[in-house]
Design brief:
The structure is a single chain. By secondary structure, the protein is α/β, with parallel strands linked by helices. It has 15 helices and 14 strands. The chain folds into two domains: 101 residues, no CATH class; 276 residues, Dihydropteroate synthase-like (TIM Barrel), CATH 3.20.20. 41% of the residues lie in helices and 16% in strands. α3 packs across α4, α6 crosses α7 and α7 packs parallel to α8.
């Protein structure tokens, strides 16, 4: 597995403003240099290093034997073209990792729905139907429908229904009880005709089966496929699947805390293995998203490291879900309760979007939609299509109602 550190996006888009598309693509490829790390280069490491160096790349070996490569796409292609057959596969791995990080997945297939991720990050609003969630619980099915309507009206693209709290101070509930909480919520949303993609936050195959049969589109599994039957259920319904990294067990906190030697390497390897397991069970690759699992089996310092190195998750090639909204690691950093964490939650969401996240699971939908649209608007391709209002609403000559331009 190759773990990579990414440079900022947008070089080609900016070059296209002054050059033609073909010229911009060629120069952008030459200018786009990436840092690639192969932790297990194998017996051909020295020969691969020599081939890359001959093509102009910079290569170093770590004390543990990993290859650290700084290269552009043309350099990687030149090394591959000149390599003997026994080195081709290793060099293709570098080129494939470069491509995955360079190109974000444009869509996500979710049953009969195709979620467009090409222009801006999409927001998933949270609706909890448990009596013990740490923040903002729905009070009955009418409230579920009202909250879901509000998510849609605020610009959200998905609603995530949760029927089991994973906090370590709350008990694990039986599958039957969880099913009785989430299935009526799905049925009520579908009956109300609300045009949102419906996600179910569960790790249990039986709950997933019932929810998908009721009309849900996505299973958001916070356990990383701990139930061996879940992926097969998702595949049978042609549904979407979010695979989250988890160290340890849901509803249980390790008394000694959580330690990582290299957090992002461990998370990427875990997610690679679990997504391959899902594909083997029949889940479509273009129906899978990944989540690094902020706070799940992690200490605040590790959560901050994930935020700092978030772009390395792009090496897996899947859309990335970002979920930090009002989480306790932020509350522990600021020593504040969940109700006072809107601003730092938005700050972390901005970090995630900048690093490549295209799905945001949040409590505060309207604010996060504005954040996502503002970040999308600054990109050259987006800002050239904007049609701003003549004047800001509320100013002399401006409209009295807010504009929906961004």
């Amino acid at each position: 597995m190759i773990v990579r550190s990414l440079n900022p996006d947008g070089v080609r888009e900016r070059l296209a403003l002054i050059l033609g598309p073909a010229e911009a693509a060629r120069i952008g490829a030459a200018a786009g240099v990436e840092v690639l790390i192969d932790d297990e280069p194998g017996a051909t490491a020295s020969a691969v290093s020599a081939a890359l160096t001959a093509a102009g790349a910079s290569v170093e070996r770590t004390p543990a034997g990993a290859l650290v490569v700084v290269a552009s796409r043309p350099q990687l292609e030149a090394a591959l073209n000149a390599a003997p057959p026994q080195l081709a596969e290793s060099l293709r791995r570098f080129l494939a990792a470069f491509h995955r990080g360079e190109t974000l997945a444009p869509t996500l297939h979710l049953r009969e729905r195709i979620l467009d991720l090409s222009d801006e990050a999409r927001v998933m609003g949270i609706v909890n139907v448990t009596p013990d969630s740490f923040y903002d619980r729905a009070a009955g099915l009418d409230d579920v429908v009202a909250r879901t309507r509000a998510i849609a009206a605020a610009g959200g693209a998905l609603v995530d229904i949760g029927g089991q709290s994973y906090a370590h101070w709350n008990p694990r509930i039986a599958a039957e009880e969880e099913r009785d909480r989430v299935v009526p919520a799905v049925e009520a949303i579908r009956a109300a005709g609300i045009d949102l993609t419906i996600s179910i936050d569960t790790f249990k195959a039986s709950v997933a089966e019932a929810a998908l049969a009721a009309g849900a589109h996505v299973i958001n599994d916070c356990s990383g496929l701990s139930d061996p039957d879940l992926a097969g259920v998702v595949a049978a319904h042609d549904a979407g699947l979010v695979v989250m990294h988890l160290k340890g067990e849901l509803n249980v906190r390790a008394p000694e805390g959580y330690h990582y030697d290299d957090a992002l390497r461990e998370i990427v390897e875990f997610l690679y293995e679990r997504t391959e397991r899902a594909v083997a069970a029949g889940v479509r690759r273009d129906s899978i998203a990944i989540d690094p699992g902020l706070e799940f089996g992690k200490e605040p310092n590790t959560d901050l490291e994930i935020l700092d190195r978030f772009a390395e998750l792009r090496t897996l090639g899947y859309p990335i879900l970002f979920a930090s909204s009002r989480k306790s690691f932020i509350g522990r950093i600021f020593n504040r309760p969940a109700k006072e964490l809107l601003v730092p939650s938005l700050a972390t969401a901005a970090l995630g979007i900048a690093a490549g996240a295209r799905l945001l699971r949040v409590h505060d939908v309207a604010e996060t939609v504005q954040l996502a649209r503002m970040m999308a608007a600054v990109r050259p391709g987006m800002r050239s299509t904007l049609v701003p209002a003549e004047r800001m609403p509320g100013t002399p000559g401006g409209n009295s109602a807010p504009s929906a331009a961004v």
